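Take a specimen:
=====
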Amino acid sequence: MPARTDTGDRNSEVSQKLLVKPVNRNTKRVFVAATRQNDGKTTTCLGLFSALQRIFTRVGYIKPIGQRFIEVEGHQVDEDSFLLDTRYDVHVPIASMSPVAIDNTFTRRYLKDPKTNNASLIDRICRAFDRVSWERDMTIIEGTGHAGVGSVFDLSNARVARMLDAKVIIVSRGGIGHPVDEIAVNKALFDKEGVEVIGAILNKVNPDKAEAVREYAGLGLKRLGVPLLGILPVRKTLSAPNLFQVAKEIDGRWINGKSHGIGQRIHRFVIGTMTAKGMFEYLQPGTLIITAGDRDDILLAATARAATCGDPIISGIILTRDVMPDPNIMELLVQTNIPVIVTSEDSYQIASKITGMTIKTQPNDHDKFPVIEKLIRENIDIRNLCRAL
């Protein structure tokens, strides 16, 4: 392991050497980058971790720099690190899996004394990497955003990949021209740092266009010298929020069926402005009904259907403008397992918020993990990836 110091100019000199001197040469490592946020980087890391465990006995993980964090065991740790550890129990202190968390004032603090702060950050990341990679055959390094994110504090994704002596795969959204353009820009930054890009993964590809994307995007990437490792078709489950996420987004209050709402995935929503007769065709799993609390006809239709079917007939009901149901209707609802939420917002505001939600996998999204693992296992050339490393 490289020598470490903590203070003074010598620390700065050591930190600069670390940018060109690999940390922990014994462990294979791959840096998972993306062309932008929410392109599927975390999904890829989750699936890769599972797939690589079939090849390597001991797999590690680290997200050196995180921007969305929670407090765990007294430490601010990145949400994605916590998510992966929750799923796979990596057996490493969570603080080492997420050594640097960027809060709202981080950049301003850094810029007041960049020389000292940079040395400290590099030392922290290198020590964390050594910890998570100790006695591991392979370590997955998850980046943050595109290749240039972090440049303001001298630790862009490209520079961190270089510092950790990692080869890179880039995740981008599906398409032909657009992903090739964005991958080319990101590759240029990695090239500038002397980091090898060994492949690309195209995510959220329309299944009907999969073969065309594979052929033509593959040709475009080949001209860049970047192999196409695979394409990931769209899976509705992965982009669908659960009812708890929706309730949090709209600041809703649960008035019924909270325990049944935990696993409810929202695949569609309908605003209850039609008659109860017209609503019947929408009473099916995966549907969220948004309606006023005084629409007795719609609420009666839902409770009647629930009474005859037994199983959950819809994913939930949101009542708008803080209008509560008639007490008699409420009594009928309580006798069902239909999840019901009340919010002060109107139908348009609720629909807009749901449509604009960024859906990230959460630790309690147990239905998503098998989908993610199968998606990576069946669509990514893991053997080719390992050979490139």
Residues 8-238+366-388 form a domain with the Rossmann fold fold (CATH 3.40.50.300). The chain has 18 helices and 15 strands.
